Amino acid sequence: MNASTPDTIDPAEAAHFGAMAADWWNPKGSSAMLHRLNPVRLRYIRGAVDGHWHGDPAGLKPLAGRRVLDVGCGAGLLAEPLARLGASVTAIDAAPENIAVARAHAEGQGLAIDYRVGGVEEMDEVDAFDLVTSLEVIEHVADPAAFVAELARRLAPGGLMVLSTPNRTPMSRLALIAVGESVGGIPKGTHDWHKFLTPEELAGLVEAAGLRVADVTGLSFGPGRGFHLSDNKAMDYLLTAVPAAAAE
């Protein structure tokens, strides 16, 4: 590990999610909400990728020839579809239990994904990726500013970063903790509301890391629609960023 770089991993958080590893791919288990979120998150990423690289929205492999890094990958719920979209995927997680499950599941699907245990700050300095993703992760790290800076360092020139995280609002406290961790199927202790970042706070960290925010879109829930993208950022949101030089 680079001794000059702060360690972004929170051991307690890694242990919490590692304990859920065996159940990660069960759509009705402890990660049920992530399974419901995944199609919406993928739709957003696909739109961001097509817009950034001027791809064909009907194309089946929009990430062909692209290197992708997924940080805080869990057992691979996002890494696997990114690989199916044609990407060469590297995925890392702090919990070795998650990586073991991810590797076994990917092998069963015939997918070649480079899974690694550890923090993003431990990666080789020469690693650079066209797309960097980290979804529902930053609220669990020890140092959000250092974490975003490390993500930005892995982004290749002309690359794209996609992050998602809950907003720190009364709505998120109600939906994700009061309801979600009592009757919503989210394991108790998964979230600390005080660690949630507002869009303005996350944008500030992204800009401090030398990137430019390209888009912020809300992720909402409705009884008739389920999870969907919206202008309402009160519960959760997705953010895309590009190197600041791309604005020039």
UniProtKB/TrEMBL annotation:
It catalyses: a 3-demethylubiquinol + S-adenosyl-L-methionine = a ubiquinol + S-adenosyl-L-homocysteine + H(+); a 3-(all-trans-polyprenyl)benzene-1,2-diol + S-adenosyl-L-methionine = a 2-methoxy-6-(all-trans-polyprenyl)phenol + S-adenosyl-L-homocysteine + H(+). It is an enzyme of class 2 (transferase). The keyword Transferase applies. Keywords: Methyltransferase, S-adenosyl-L-methionine, Transferase, Ubiquinone, Ubiquinone biosynthesis. The keyword Flavoprotein does not apply. S-adenosyl-L-methionine binds at R41, G72, D93, L135. InterPro entries: SAM-dependent_MTases_sf, UbiG_MeTrfase. Pathway: Cofactor biosynthesis; ubiquinone biosynthesis. Pfam families: Methyltransf_23 (PF13489). CDD domains: AdoMet_MTases. GO terms for molecular function: 2-polyprenyl-6-hydroxyphenol methylase activity; 3-demethylubiquinol 3-O-methyltransferase activity; polyprenyldihydroxybenzoate methyltransferase activity. Its EC number is 2.1.1.222, 2.1.1.64. Coiled coil: none annotated. One of its GO terms (biological process) is methylation. PANTHER family: METHYLTRANSFERASE, UBIQUINONE BIOSYNTHESIS O-METHYLTRANSFERASE, MITOCHONDRIAL. HAMAP family: UbiG. O-methyltransferase that catalyzes the 2 O-methylation steps in the ubiquinone biosynthetic pathway. Belongs to the methyltransferase superfamily. UbiG/COQ3 family. This is Ubiquinone biosynthesis O-methyltransferase. It comes from Edaphosphingomonas haloaromaticamans. The gene is ubiG.
